[in-house]
## 1
Amino acid sequence: MTIDVNAAFDSGNIELVAIDGDRVDLNIRRDAGSDFYQWFHFRVSGAKGRTLTFRLLNAGGAAYAFGWPGYRPRVSGDRAHWAMVGASTYNDGVLTFSHAIEQDVVWFAYFAPYSMERHQDLIARIAGAEGVSHRTLGHSLDGQAIDCFDLGTGTKQVWIYARQHPGESMAEWFMEGALEALTDADDPVAVTLREKATIHLVPNMNPDGSRRGHLRTNAAGVNLNREWHSPSAERSPEVLCVRDAMDATGVDWAIDVHGDEAIPANFLAGYEGIPSWTDAHGERFYDYQRRLAEATPLFQTEQGYDKAPAGRANLAMSTNQLAERFGAVSMTLEMPFKDHDPSPDPVEGWSPDRSKALARACLKVLADVI
């Protein structure tokens, strides 16, 4: 049979260069209008019973090429369960991995995908839950809806939003876990949070990039997490409509959910360096961070990003903008494309199920501190 490599589907991304026997040479397609690339998602058919070696020839030019060492691609035969391939190597700008093909069709991806079709299923399921209101905040450049769920009756305004960077699909798995927890009538954490707060959740801020198979940008090649100081309808309507909705409610707590290419652990980044920083304000963030590390082995505080110097925070990024704009306790949650080394899983690595479990832990700590 002839080997077929295809990425013409929701969130697909790959370019076939050549097939030579059992070796398949590929390139990752750039985000439209941008130099960013790293996300890949493709399927292979016609190779059952063969062990193929894949080479991503342009891996060295990827946005975060320093993240390739120690990374292992994900593979699935049913698109429901994703495991890491046995091993990969990164040499001379090429990422290489092999896999024994046991099914007629298999899929490979940078991380377990969260398709826009699954997103639509999530919207339908959660919109029907008791005590939940759905609204469309606006539309993307491609005309897709920016969905938001509102629930709870408390005075504290909590915003949780994800997938500004569409290739960070673990972020929407986290949101699925958070929404399932918050709509569970038997979950005491959900009951407490819904009494203490009004919670607004945007599961996917970048549906265009998600569907197109982008790593980091929207349909115009714009990095949404550099637009929060001055979003526009022409470049970043996704940010504009969400920030306008935040202006209408105010923000007391905010969690922006992401994935990190290089660091093999979950961690939080705060808002050090904003002009209005005070130690008392920052301590509320640090207290949350410490409590989360105590609450779950899926989180740690030793690894993370460097803190911005005083007065040097980038207010174009949402976490800094919301902390400065509203005085919010604002944070960026980063999850790994690799594994969570402090509590590893040798088969799946960091996974959708563990992303959802971390969401529940984050909500529990939020209920304690809010």
## 2
Amino acid sequence: MIREDSLRRMYAGGRPNRWARFLNRVSAMVFSLGVVGHGAVTLETVNPKSRTLLTLPLVVARYEGNEYAVSMLGQGSRWVRNVRAANGKAVICAGRRRPVVLEEVRADARAPILEAYLAQAPGARPHIPVDQSEPVASFETIAADFPVFKIRDV
């Protein structure tokens, strides 16, 4: 198991270092096969300027019967910028390719989803400055900093 301080260093400045990029590539390949379970998927977005494909591993949060994509690195994540520029269009892979639309959740509605996400995505815990055991009110103070998107099938 990788220690929390090591996980934080892998994403210093909100960007993955070389080791994190390698692990993300491997994880994305495995997650796309759909063999991991527990919400592990691969998210595909397209850079609107260069038209290059960005593929990354992601843990989908499940809350009140819906699925959500959460940016553990906050507003500056490339996939967040890509999704916003593409009006939410993306593809999720977990055994099969699934075109989706990601609808951004208002900041004032994110707190319980972020709490559920931390319970389901242990790798995200070092990057979100609220402990998973804290009450949902604690998540309200940081909710605007961490984009959350509701996943809808096309």
